[in-house]
Design the sequence.
């Protein structure tokens, strides 16, 4: 990059693609983001990039996207080259360009005392244009290696691993227990956050590249794991970290209390016109979302679209500070409060509230209210709660529908329990520095390895495990390393 746009940030303010008006979008299931953007807008935003000597943005990106290069290419209007640069480190830039919390942006040098470059918007614009122009085409391998690999799980980790391995000539089959491909991109993340045509066109690309898919294939349940081990030269478990974390409180068995994931998937299925058995909807109800995070936000937004009477999100922890704490300097990920897209659409957030019980007031077997207390906590150095001080005991919050969104407890690894694969204490699958489990030729990647995380990490893990599997099969690999900066696996 030359320095002819080193002062772009002085000429142009930050101007991301932005979101649709919350008052309008809350009534439909179309994506919450503005559907269109101007080339000039994004080129100016690319010009804001300073091509810093040390691009801290890249250190903030779990897959090491070469951000300054594609910012520059966009600024110069060389969109096709920008797309190639982007695809060099990220198989599915629209997955991240639409859904990523963009840890690269607070790590941008401009964020030190100015507004960071709109990296996420530029990424989205590059890949949007790539699809519009027909530049994203299947790239089947020229030759086949003769090796066969089974990928279990079709989330972003499994799909990225599949594409990488297929492109170096291995014959890849993806096994997915659901009736549709995509993992949480399809069943979990709401349609208004990520439209499912975006998954479908990638799956189509992967199929045309020669990857085989089997849905309704629950490995360890209706497809024996040992059959896969016998039929394939390597197996990768990319099964996510979908084991639900429950709240074992009095009244948990009452009707009207369910896991957030169950609720979100039902709405995904409705939107896809797939059958929903015994579905639950929030229309006219007092909805309580227990827990913050992405899952909680998605529940709030879904409940509003279904016509909930009231939505309250309960967090046991205090609200994060509005400014960075002193021990959280730039370019670390900021430990600060930000209103979620869902709260912008409505609802109330309450903090420091500890749920004590779910109560059925009229003995009809259905929850009527939450019994709660307001509490302050002391925390250890890892921000883990250790001691509680009650500020306000025993108050009631009306509830017709309670959605549990307090996180996940690792991979659903029960089907692999007796196989010799070791499960870590946190419920994730134990792998060595080469991402291999205790079983030779069996690998694990994505949330199954990291614990519940974000899409960009899953893609990075998929790319890394592909390189590990390729090395295992061939003795060496031409596949790129991901430029991960945190905990890089030694053997990569
Ligand atoms: C509600 C919600 C919203 C989120 N929103 C965002 C967001 O906005 N941005 C972001 O970056 N991240 C978000 N995340 C996190 C992100 O979706 C995950 O980190 C990512 O999808 C993990 O990818 P993965 O491939 O490892 O696993 P998953 O996407 O979980 O896919 C695992 C797949 O394996 C399948 N599977 C499991 N066991 C078997 C078996 N035995 N046989 C066959 N198949 C099996 C599952 O059915 C599933 O399809 C969200 C997560 C949730 C729960």
Sequence:
């Amino acid at each position: 990059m030359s320095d002819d746009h080193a002062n772009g940030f002085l000429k142009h303010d930050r101007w991301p693609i932005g979101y649709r008006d919350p008052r309008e979008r809350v009534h439909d299931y179309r994506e919450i983001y503005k559907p269109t953007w101007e080339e000039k807008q994004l080129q100016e935003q690319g010009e804001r990039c300073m091509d810093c000597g040390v691009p801290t943005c890249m250190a903030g990106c779990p897959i090491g996207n070469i951000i300054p290069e594609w910012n520059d290419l966009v600024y110069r209007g060389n969109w096709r080259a920008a797309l190639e640069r982007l695809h060099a480190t990220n198989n599915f830039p629209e997955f991240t360009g639409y859904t990523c919390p963009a840890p690269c942006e607070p790590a941008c040098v401009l964020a030190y005392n100015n507004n960071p470059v709109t990296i996420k918007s530029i990424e989205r614009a590059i890949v949007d244009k790539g699809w519009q122009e027909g530049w994203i085409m299947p790239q089947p391998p020229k030759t086949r290696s003769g090796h066969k690999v089974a990928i279990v799980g079709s989330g972003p980790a499994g799909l990225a691993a599949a594409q990488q391995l297929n492109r170096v000539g291995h014959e890849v089959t993806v096994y997915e227990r659901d009736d549709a491909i995509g993992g949480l991109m399809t069943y979990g993340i709401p349609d208004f956050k990520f439209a499912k045509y975006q998954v479908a066109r990638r799956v189509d690309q992967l199929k045309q590249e020669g990857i085989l898919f089997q849905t309704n294939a629950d490995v360890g349940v209706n497809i024996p794991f040992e059959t896969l081990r016998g039929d394939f030269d390597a197996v990768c478990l990319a099964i996510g970290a979908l084991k639900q974390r429950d709240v074992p409180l009095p009244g948990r068995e009452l009707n009207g209390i369910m896991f957030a994931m169950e609720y979100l998937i039902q709405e995904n299925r409705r939107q896809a016109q797939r059958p929903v058995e015994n579905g639950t909807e929030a229309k006219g109800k007092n909805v309580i979302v227990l827990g913050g995070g992405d899952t909680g936000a998605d529940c709030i937004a879904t409940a509003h679209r279904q016509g909930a009477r009231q939505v309250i999100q309960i967090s046991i922890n205090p609200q994060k500070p509005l400014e960075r704490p002193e021990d959280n300097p730039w370019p670390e990920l900021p430990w600060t409060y930000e209103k979620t897209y869902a709260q912008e659409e409505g609802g109330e957030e309450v903090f420091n509230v500890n749920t004590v019980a779910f109560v059925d007031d009229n003995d009809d077997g259905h929850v009527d209210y939450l019994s709660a207390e307001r509490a302050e906590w002391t925390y250890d150095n890892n921000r883990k709660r250790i001691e509680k001080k009650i500020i306000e005991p025993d108050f009631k919050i009306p509830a017709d529908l309670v959605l549990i969104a307090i996180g996940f407890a690792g991979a659903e690894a029960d089907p692999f329990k007796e196989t010799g694969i070791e499960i870590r204490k946190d419920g994730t699958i134990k792998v060595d520095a080469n991402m291999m489990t205790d079983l030779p030729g069996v690998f694990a990647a994505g949330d199954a390895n990291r614990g519940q995380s974000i899409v960009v990490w899953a893609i990075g893990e998929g790319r890394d495990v592909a390189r590990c599997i390729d090395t295992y099969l061939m003795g060496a690999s031409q596949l790129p390393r991901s430029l991960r900066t945190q905990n890089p696996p030694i053997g990569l």
